[in-house]
Design goal:
The complex is a heterodimer of chains A (about 230) and B (about 220). By secondary structure, chain A is α/β, with parallel strands linked by helices. Helices cover about 15% and strands about 25% of the residues of chain A. Chain A has a seven-stranded parallel beta sheet with strand order 4-3-2-1-8-11-13. Chain B has helices spanning about 5-15, 30, 85-95, 130-135, 195-200; strands at about 20-25, 40-45, 50-55, 75-80, 100-105, 105-110, 115, 140-145, 155, 170-175, 175-180, 185-190, 205-210. The chains are: A alpha/beta (about 230), B alpha/beta (about 220).
Chain lengths: ~230, ~220
Protein backbone atom coordinates (compact mmCIF):
# COMPACT_ATOMS: atom_id res chain seq x y z
CA UNK A 1 0.00 0.00 0.00
CA UNK A 2 3.04 2.30 0.13
CA UNK A 3 2.08 3.72 -3.25
CA UNK A 4 -0.68 5.56 -1.45
CA UNK A 5 1.54 6.95 1.29
CA UNK A 6 1.55 10.71 0.69
CA UNK A 7 3.66 11.74 3.67
CA UNK A 8 6.76 13.82 3.04
CA UNK A 9 9.23 14.70 5.77
CA UNK A 10 10.17 18.29 4.94
CA UNK A 11 8.63 21.42 3.48
CA UNK A 12 11.43 21.46 0.90
CA UNK A 13 10.12 18.13 -0.35
CA UNK A 14 6.50 19.31 -0.04
CA UNK A 15 7.03 22.31 -2.34
CA UNK A 16 9.65 20.80 -4.67
CA UNK A 17 9.07 21.75 -8.29
CA UNK A 18 7.65 25.19 -7.59
CA UNK A 19 9.25 27.67 -9.96
CA UNK A 20 8.85 31.30 -11.06
CA UNK A 21 5.58 32.42 -12.70
CA UNK A 22 3.51 29.50 -11.44
CA UNK A 23 -0.09 29.72 -10.18
CA UNK A 24 -0.79 28.68 -6.59
CA UNK A 25 -4.26 28.13 -5.16
CA UNK A 26 -4.36 28.61 -1.39
CA UNK A 27 -7.01 27.64 1.16
CA UNK A 28 -7.95 29.83 4.11
CA UNK A 29 -10.29 32.67 5.03
CA UNK A 30 -8.55 35.67 6.53
CA UNK A 31 -5.92 34.04 8.74
CA UNK A 32 -8.17 31.09 9.59
CA UNK A 33 -7.12 27.72 8.17
CA UNK A 34 -4.15 28.99 6.17
CA UNK A 35 -1.24 26.72 5.15
CA UNK A 36 1.34 28.56 7.25
CA UNK A 37 4.24 26.20 6.62
CA UNK A 38 3.86 26.06 2.82
CA UNK A 39 3.71 29.86 2.68
CA UNK A 40 6.92 30.16 4.71
CA UNK A 41 8.57 27.63 2.41
CA UNK A 42 7.52 29.62 -0.69
CA UNK A 43 9.10 32.69 0.89
CA UNK A 44 12.36 30.91 1.60
CA UNK A 45 12.49 29.48 -1.94
CA UNK A 46 12.38 33.04 -3.29
CA UNK A 47 10.33 32.16 -6.38
CA UNK A 48 8.91 35.22 -8.16
CA UNK A 49 6.16 36.20 -10.58
CA UNK A 50 3.57 34.10 -8.77
CA UNK A 51 -0.17 34.25 -9.35
CA UNK A 52 -1.95 33.53 -6.07
CA UNK A 53 -5.60 32.51 -5.95
CA UNK A 54 -6.91 32.95 -2.42
CA UNK A 55 -9.84 34.71 -0.74
CA UNK A 56 -7.48 37.13 1.02
CA UNK A 57 -3.77 38.00 1.08
CA UNK A 58 -2.91 37.68 4.77
CA UNK A 59 -1.70 40.63 6.84
CA UNK A 60 1.61 42.44 7.15
CA UNK A 61 4.17 39.92 8.37
CA UNK A 62 1.89 36.86 8.46
CA UNK A 63 0.20 34.48 6.05
CA UNK A 64 0.37 35.32 2.34
CA UNK A 65 1.39 38.86 3.35
CA UNK A 66 4.98 37.66 3.82
CA UNK A 67 5.23 36.88 0.09
CA UNK A 68 4.78 40.60 -0.62
CA UNK A 69 7.96 41.47 1.31
CA UNK A 70 10.26 40.26 -1.50
CA UNK A 71 7.72 41.05 -4.25
CA UNK A 72 7.10 37.38 -5.05
CA UNK A 73 3.47 37.90 -6.07
CA UNK A 74 2.76 39.28 -9.53
CA UNK A 75 -1.00 38.80 -9.50
CA UNK A 76 -3.56 38.23 -6.77
CA UNK A 77 -7.00 36.74 -7.49
CA UNK A 78 -9.08 37.38 -4.36
CA UNK A 79 -12.44 38.64 -3.09
CA UNK A 80 -11.19 40.95 -0.36
CA UNK A 81 -7.71 42.38 0.13
CA UNK A 82 -5.99 45.37 1.63
CA UNK A 83 -5.75 44.29 5.27
CA UNK A 84 -2.03 45.00 4.88
CA UNK A 85 -0.20 48.25 4.19
CA UNK A 86 2.35 46.58 1.91
CA UNK A 87 -0.39 45.21 -0.33
CA UNK A 88 -1.89 48.67 -0.72
CA UNK A 89 1.51 50.18 -1.52
CA UNK A 90 2.38 47.62 -4.21
CA UNK A 91 -1.11 47.86 -5.69
CA UNK A 92 -0.94 51.66 -5.98
CA UNK A 93 2.59 51.55 -7.44
CA UNK A 94 1.45 49.07 -10.09
CA UNK A 95 3.88 46.34 -8.98
CA UNK A 96 0.99 44.08 -8.03
CA UNK A 97 -1.98 43.19 -10.20
CA UNK A 98 -5.29 42.34 -8.52
CA UNK A 99 -8.30 40.57 -10.01
CA UNK A 100 -11.13 41.12 -7.54
CA UNK A 101 -13.52 38.18 -7.75
CA UNK A 102 -16.80 37.67 -5.86
CA UNK A 103 -16.32 35.19 -3.04
CA UNK A 104 -18.84 32.63 -4.30
CA UNK A 105 -17.43 32.87 -7.82
CA UNK A 106 -13.94 32.31 -6.42
CA UNK A 107 -15.08 29.16 -4.58
CA UNK A 108 -16.85 27.91 -7.71
CA UNK A 109 -13.80 28.63 -9.88
CA UNK A 110 -11.78 26.31 -7.65
CA UNK A 111 -14.42 23.61 -7.36
CA UNK A 112 -15.16 23.51 -11.08
CA UNK A 113 -11.45 23.71 -11.92
CA UNK A 114 -10.94 20.59 -9.82
CA UNK A 115 -13.95 18.91 -11.41
CA UNK A 116 -12.79 19.34 -15.00
CA UNK A 117 -15.43 21.95 -15.80
CA UNK A 118 -13.71 24.80 -17.68
CA UNK A 119 -16.33 27.50 -17.09
CA UNK A 120 -19.77 28.08 -15.59
CA UNK A 121 -22.64 30.57 -15.71
CA UNK A 122 -23.53 32.59 -12.62
CA UNK A 123 -25.84 35.52 -11.93
CA UNK A 124 -23.23 36.99 -9.58
CA UNK A 125 -21.60 40.05 -11.11
CA UNK A 126 -24.03 40.59 -13.99
CA UNK A 127 -24.42 44.32 -14.66
CA UNK A 128 -21.38 45.15 -12.52
CA UNK A 129 -17.71 45.82 -13.37
CA UNK A 130 -17.09 42.09 -12.75
CA UNK A 131 -19.31 41.22 -15.70
CA UNK A 132 -17.69 43.71 -18.11
CA UNK A 133 -16.43 42.00 -21.24
CA UNK A 134 -17.69 38.58 -20.20
CA UNK A 135 -20.06 36.48 -22.27
CA UNK A 136 -23.62 36.61 -20.89
CA UNK A 137 -26.74 34.54 -21.46
CA UNK A 138 -30.34 34.51 -20.32
CA UNK A 139 -31.76 31.37 -18.69
CA UNK A 140 -35.43 31.43 -17.61
CA UNK A 141 -35.52 35.21 -17.88
CA UNK A 142 -32.50 35.85 -15.68
CA UNK A 143 -29.08 37.13 -16.77
CA UNK A 144 -25.93 35.11 -16.15
CA UNK A 145 -22.26 35.68 -16.98
CA UNK A 146 -19.71 33.07 -18.01
CA UNK A 147 -16.85 32.67 -15.53
CA UNK A 148 -13.77 30.55 -16.21
CA UNK A 149 -12.48 28.00 -13.72
CA UNK A 150 -8.99 27.96 -12.23
CA UNK A 151 -6.42 25.21 -11.91
CA UNK A 152 -3.18 25.75 -10.00
CA UNK A 153 0.29 24.41 -10.68
CA UNK A 154 0.19 23.94 -6.92
CA UNK A 155 -2.61 23.98 -4.34
CA UNK A 156 -1.63 24.56 -0.71
CA UNK A 157 -4.09 23.40 1.91
CA UNK A 158 -4.39 23.39 5.72
CA UNK A 159 -6.18 20.43 7.29
CA UNK A 160 -6.67 19.24 10.86
CA UNK A 161 -6.10 15.48 10.69
CA UNK A 162 -5.19 13.21 7.83
CA UNK A 163 -4.22 9.60 7.46
CA UNK A 164 -1.05 8.67 5.57
CA UNK A 165 -3.11 8.12 2.39
CA UNK A 166 -4.06 11.80 2.37
CA UNK A 167 -7.66 11.53 3.54
CA UNK A 168 -8.22 14.87 5.23
CA UNK A 169 -10.57 16.25 7.88
CA UNK A 170 -10.81 19.99 8.55
CA UNK A 171 -11.56 21.57 11.90
CA UNK A 172 -14.53 23.96 12.34
CA UNK A 173 -14.52 27.08 10.14
CA UNK A 174 -10.88 26.46 9.24
CA UNK A 175 -12.46 24.35 6.47
CA UNK A 176 -13.55 27.33 4.28
CA UNK A 177 -11.79 27.25 0.87
CA UNK A 178 -9.45 24.37 1.76
CA UNK A 179 -11.39 21.39 0.33
CA UNK A 180 -11.98 23.33 -2.93
CA UNK A 181 -8.34 24.33 -3.25
CA UNK A 182 -7.38 20.69 -2.62
CA UNK A 183 -9.19 19.56 -5.77
CA UNK A 184 -7.73 22.24 -8.04
CA UNK A 185 -3.96 21.75 -7.86
CA UNK A 186 -1.88 19.84 -10.38
CA UNK A 187 0.20 19.19 -7.28
CA UNK A 188 -1.80 19.43 -4.04
CA UNK A 189 0.15 19.84 -0.82
CA UNK A 190 -1.72 19.43 2.47
CA UNK A 191 -0.30 20.32 5.85
CA UNK A 192 -2.06 19.07 8.97
CA UNK A 193 -1.79 19.14 12.73
CA UNK A 194 -1.79 15.36 13.08
CA UNK A 195 -1.11 12.41 10.78
CA UNK A 196 -2.68 9.06 11.71
CA UNK A 197 -2.59 5.55 10.23
CA UNK A 198 -5.10 4.50 7.55
CA UNK A 199 -8.21 3.10 9.20
CA UNK A 200 -8.11 5.47 12.15
CA UNK A 201 -10.41 8.05 10.55
CA UNK A 202 -14.06 7.25 9.84
CA UNK A 203 -14.27 6.99 6.01
CA UNK A 204 -17.69 8.67 6.04
CA UNK A 205 -16.31 11.74 7.83
CA UNK A 206 -13.52 12.49 5.33
CA UNK A 207 -13.82 15.96 3.77
CA UNK A 208 -11.06 15.58 1.16
CA UNK A 209 -10.45 12.05 -0.15
CA UNK A 210 -6.79 11.12 -0.64
CA UNK A 211 -7.10 10.95 -4.43
CA UNK A 212 -6.77 14.74 -4.53
CA UNK A 213 -3.67 14.87 -2.34
CA UNK A 214 -0.12 14.47 -3.65
CA UNK A 215 1.98 15.43 -0.63
CA UNK A 216 1.13 15.45 3.05
CA UNK A 217 3.14 16.98 5.86
CA UNK A 218 2.66 17.45 9.57
CA UNK A 219 3.29 21.02 10.67
CA UNK A 220 3.04 23.31 13.65
CA UNK A 221 0.74 26.29 13.48
CA UNK A 222 0.64 29.68 15.11
CA UNK A 223 -3.07 30.17 14.25
CA UNK A 224 -3.05 33.92 14.64
CA UNK A 225 -6.45 35.53 15.36
CA UNK A 226 -7.34 38.55 13.25
CA UNK A 227 -10.29 39.96 15.25
CA UNK A 228 -10.37 38.65 18.78
CA UNK A 229 -13.90 39.39 20.01
CA UNK A 230 -15.10 38.11 23.38
CA UNK A 231 -18.09 38.51 25.65
CA UNK A 232 -18.06 38.69 29.45
CA UNK A 233 -18.84 35.43 31.24
CA UNK B 1 -36.37 62.22 14.49
CA UNK B 2 -34.27 60.04 12.23
CA UNK B 3 -33.94 56.46 13.42
CA UNK B 4 -30.90 55.45 15.44
CA UNK B 5 -28.84 52.47 14.27
CA UNK B 6 -30.51 50.39 16.98
CA UNK B 7 -33.98 51.44 15.85
CA UNK B 8 -33.11 50.54 12.25
CA UNK B 9 -32.06 47.09 13.45
CA UNK B 10 -35.29 46.82 15.46
CA UNK B 11 -37.37 47.69 12.41
CA UNK B 12 -35.56 45.13 10.23
CA UNK B 13 -36.12 42.50 12.93
CA UNK B 14 -39.88 42.87 12.36
CA UNK B 15 -39.33 41.16 8.98
CA UNK B 16 -37.99 38.01 10.69
CA UNK B 17 -40.13 34.89 10.78
CA UNK B 18 -39.82 31.76 12.90
CA UNK B 19 -37.54 29.26 11.17
CA UNK B 20 -35.81 31.82 8.94
CA UNK B 21 -32.20 31.34 7.78
CA UNK B 22 -30.71 34.84 7.69
CA UNK B 23 -27.48 36.39 6.42
CA UNK B 24 -26.52 39.69 8.05
CA UNK B 25 -23.95 42.04 6.54
CA UNK B 26 -21.48 44.13 8.50
CA UNK B 27 -22.60 47.28 10.37
CA UNK B 28 -26.27 47.99 11.14
CA UNK B 29 -27.35 44.55 9.79
CA UNK B 30 -25.23 42.84 12.46
CA UNK B 31 -27.29 44.60 15.17
CA UNK B 32 -30.47 42.85 13.98
CA UNK B 33 -29.33 39.75 15.89
CA UNK B 34 -29.98 41.68 19.12
CA UNK B 35 -33.70 42.09 18.36
CA UNK B 36 -35.00 38.62 17.54
CA UNK B 37 -38.62 38.60 18.77
CA UNK B 38 -39.21 36.44 21.82
CA UNK B 39 -40.30 32.87 21.11
CA UNK B 40 -38.85 32.98 17.59
CA UNK B 41 -35.98 30.83 16.31
CA UNK B 42 -33.75 32.28 13.63
CA UNK B 43 -30.46 30.87 12.33
CA UNK B 44 -27.67 33.14 11.11
CA UNK B 45 -25.54 32.16 8.16
CA UNK B 46 -21.95 33.35 7.97
CA UNK B 47 -20.60 33.03 4.44
CA UNK B 48 -17.20 31.64 5.48
CA UNK B 49 -19.07 28.39 6.15
CA UNK B 50 -21.21 28.48 9.31
CA UNK B 51 -24.98 28.10 9.64
CA UNK B 52 -26.14 28.69 13.20
CA UNK B 53 -23.72 31.39 14.31
CA UNK B 54 -23.83 32.07 18.05
CA UNK B 55 -22.60 34.91 20.22
CA UNK B 56 -19.00 35.94 20.74
CA UNK B 57 -17.02 33.44 22.84
CA UNK B 58 -15.97 33.98 26.43
CA UNK B 59 -12.22 34.33 26.91
CA UNK B 60 -12.03 30.58 27.66
CA UNK B 61 -14.02 29.62 24.58
CA UNK B 62 -11.91 31.57 22.03
CA UNK B 63 -10.88 29.26 19.18
CA UNK B 64 -8.78 30.45 16.23
CA UNK B 65 -10.58 27.91 14.01
CA UNK B 66 -13.98 29.42 14.81
CA UNK B 67 -14.61 32.77 13.11
CA UNK B 68 -17.37 34.62 11.23
CA UNK B 69 -17.28 36.37 7.86
CA UNK B 70 -15.98 39.52 9.57
CA UNK B 71 -13.03 37.41 10.82
CA UNK B 72 -14.22 37.83 14.41
CA UNK B 73 -14.08 34.91 16.84
CA UNK B 74 -17.57 33.42 17.31
CA UNK B 75 -19.36 30.37 18.67
CA UNK B 76 -21.89 28.00 17.10
CA UNK B 77 -25.36 27.35 18.55
CA UNK B 78 -26.63 23.81 19.21
CA UNK B 79 -27.89 22.55 15.85
CA UNK B 80 -25.35 24.53 13.82
CA UNK B 81 -23.49 23.15 10.82
CA UNK B 82 -20.09 23.97 9.33
CA UNK B 83 -19.15 23.47 5.69
CA UNK B 84 -16.93 24.63 2.83
CA UNK B 85 -17.06 28.01 1.08
CA UNK B 86 -18.66 26.45 -1.99
CA UNK B 87 -21.42 24.82 0.10
CA UNK B 88 -21.91 28.20 1.75
CA UNK B 89 -22.34 29.99 -1.57
CA UNK B 90 -24.56 27.20 -2.92
CA UNK B 91 -26.96 28.21 -0.13
CA UNK B 92 -26.65 31.86 -1.08
CA UNK B 93 -26.68 31.55 -4.88
CA UNK B 94 -29.27 28.81 -4.86
CA UNK B 95 -31.74 31.09 -3.09
CA UNK B 96 -31.92 29.00 0.09
CA UNK B 97 -31.32 31.89 2.50
CA UNK B 98 -34.69 33.39 3.58
CA UNK B 99 -33.55 36.93 4.36
CA UNK B 100 -30.43 38.92 3.56
CA UNK B 101 -29.71 42.29 5.19
CA UNK B 102 -26.88 44.46 3.94
CA UNK B 103 -25.70 48.04 3.72
CA UNK B 104 -25.16 50.17 0.61
CA UNK B 105 -23.82 53.51 -0.67
CA UNK B 106 -26.68 53.96 -3.18
CA UNK B 107 -29.79 52.27 -4.52
CA UNK B 108 -31.93 53.33 -7.46
CA UNK B 109 -35.49 53.09 -8.78
CA UNK B 110 -34.61 50.02 -10.85
CA UNK B 111 -33.41 48.03 -7.85
CA UNK B 112 -29.73 48.50 -8.64
CA UNK B 113 -27.35 48.61 -5.69
CA UNK B 114 -23.85 50.09 -5.30
CA UNK B 115 -22.04 49.10 -2.13
CA UNK B 116 -18.44 48.11 -2.76
CA UNK B 117 -16.46 50.58 -4.80
CA UNK B 118 -15.86 54.32 -4.84
CA UNK B 119 -13.68 55.23 -7.84
CA UNK B 120 -10.51 57.02 -6.78
CA UNK B 121 -10.53 55.40 -3.36
CA UNK B 122 -8.74 52.17 -2.53
CA UNK B 123 -10.96 49.22 -3.37
CA UNK B 124 -10.65 46.34 -0.94
CA UNK B 125 -13.06 44.03 -2.71
CA UNK B 126 -16.66 42.88 -2.86
CA UNK B 127 -16.24 39.82 -0.63
CA UNK B 128 -19.54 37.93 -0.81
CA UNK B 129 -21.78 40.94 -1.47
CA UNK B 130 -22.27 40.35 -5.21
CA UNK B 131 -23.22 36.72 -4.56
CA UNK B 132 -25.67 37.73 -1.83
CA UNK B 133 -27.54 40.31 -3.92
CA UNK B 134 -27.61 38.12 -7.05
CA UNK B 135 -28.78 34.99 -5.27
CA UNK B 136 -31.24 36.19 -2.65
CA UNK B 137 -34.85 37.05 -3.33
CA UNK B 138 -35.66 38.68 -0.01
CA UNK B 139 -33.11 41.44 0.61
CA UNK B 140 -33.39 44.47 2.87
CA UNK B 141 -30.89 47.26 2.32
CA UNK B 142 -30.13 49.42 5.35
CA UNK B 143 -28.53 52.81 4.80
CA UNK B 144 -28.85 56.49 5.68
CA UNK B 145 -31.32 58.27 3.41
CA UNK B 146 -28.88 61.03 2.47
CA UNK B 147 -25.18 61.76 2.89
CA UNK B 148 -23.85 64.05 5.61
CA UNK B 149 -23.97 66.83 3.01
CA UNK B 150 -27.66 66.14 2.37
CA UNK B 151 -27.23 64.37 -0.99
CA UNK B 152 -29.83 61.66 -1.58
CA UNK B 153 -28.68 58.04 -1.75
CA UNK B 154 -32.01 56.96 -3.31
CA UNK B 155 -31.40 57.83 -6.91
CA UNK B 156 -32.92 57.72 -10.42
CA UNK B 157 -29.76 55.82 -11.36
CA UNK B 158 -26.79 54.68 -9.26
CA UNK B 159 -23.70 56.77 -9.95
CA UNK B 160 -21.19 54.31 -8.46
CA UNK B 161 -20.17 50.93 -9.94
CA UNK B 162 -22.88 48.37 -9.16
CA UNK B 163 -22.82 45.42 -6.79
CA UNK B 164 -25.91 43.98 -8.46
CA UNK B 165 -28.47 44.95 -11.10
CA UNK B 166 -32.22 44.95 -10.52
CA UNK B 167 -32.10 42.92 -7.32
CA UNK B 168 -33.29 45.23 -4.52
CA UNK B 169 -36.96 45.53 -3.57
CA UNK B 170 -36.83 46.77 0.05
CA UNK B 171 -34.92 49.67 1.58
CA UNK B 172 -34.87 50.83 5.19
CA UNK B 173 -33.26 54.21 5.78
CA UNK B 174 -33.00 56.30 8.91
CA UNK B 175 -36.04 58.23 7.65
CA UNK B 176 -38.32 55.70 5.98
CA UNK B 177 -39.14 52.19 4.84
CA UNK B 178 -39.59 52.01 1.07
CA UNK B 179 -40.20 49.37 -1.55
CA UNK B 180 -39.04 49.40 -5.16
CA UNK B 181 -41.43 48.39 -7.96
CA UNK B 182 -42.17 49.47 -11.54
CA UNK B 183 -39.13 51.75 -11.66
CA UNK B 184 -40.18 53.82 -8.65
CA UNK B 185 -39.66 54.06 -4.91
CA UNK B 186 -42.87 53.52 -2.93
CA UNK B 187 -42.99 55.13 0.51
CA UNK B 188 -44.46 52.66 3.01
CA UNK B 189 -43.57 53.94 6.48
CA UNK B 190 -41.83 56.94 7.99
CA UNK B 191 -39.67 57.30 11.08
CA UNK B 192 -41.48 58.78 14.09
CA UNK B 193 -41.67 62.55 13.77
CA UNK B 194 -40.20 62.65 10.25
CA UNK B 195 -42.39 64.50 7.77
CA UNK B 196 -43.35 63.19 4.37
CA UNK B 197 -42.01 66.47 2.97
CA UNK B 198 -38.53 65.77 4.33
CA UNK B 199 -38.55 62.29 2.78
CA UNK B 200 -39.69 63.70 -0.57
CA UNK B 201 -36.98 66.35 -0.42
CA UNK B 202 -34.25 63.77 0.29
CA UNK B 203 -35.35 61.20 -2.30
CA UNK B 204 -33.85 61.97 -5.71
CA UNK B 205 -35.43 59.01 -7.52
CA UNK B 206 -39.13 59.03 -8.45
CA UNK B 207 -41.18 58.49 -5.29
CA UNK B 208 -44.78 57.35 -4.96
CA UNK B 209 -46.37 58.72 -1.79
CA UNK B 210 -49.72 57.29 -0.65
CA UNK B 211 -52.34 59.47 1.07
CA UNK B 212 -51.48 58.03 4.44
CA UNK B 213 -47.92 57.11 5.45
CA UNK B 214 -47.94 55.32 8.80
CA UNK B 215 -45.30 56.12 11.41
CA UNK B 216 -43.10 53.29 12.64
CA UNK B 217 -43.62 52.35 16.26
CA UNK B 218 -40.98 51.10 18.66
CA UNK B 219 -41.36 49.45 22.01
CA UNK B 220 -39.23 51.16 24.63
Amino acid sequence: MSGFDKVVSSYEEAMAGLTDDMTIIAGGFGLCGIPEGCIKQIKSMGVKGLTIVSNNCGVDGFGLGILLEDRQIKKMIASYVGENALFEKQLLSGELEVELTPQGTLAEKMRSGGAGIPAFYTATGYGTPVGDGKESRVFNGKHYILEESVVGDFAIVKGWKADRFGNVIYRKTAQNFNPLAATAGKITVVEVEEIVEPGELDPAQIHTPGIYVDRLIQGTFEKRIEQRTVRAK
Amino acid sequence: MALTREQMAQRVAKELKDGYYVNLGIGIPTLVANYIPEGMSVMFQSENGLLGMGQFPTEDEVDADMINAGKQTVTAIPGASIFSSSDSFDMIRGGHVDLTVLGAFEVDVNGNIASWMIPGKLVKGMGGAMDLVAGADNIIVTMTHASKHGESKLLPQCSLPLTGAGCIKKVLTDLAYLEIADGKFHLKERAPGVSVEEIIEKTAGELVVPDVVPEMTFSA
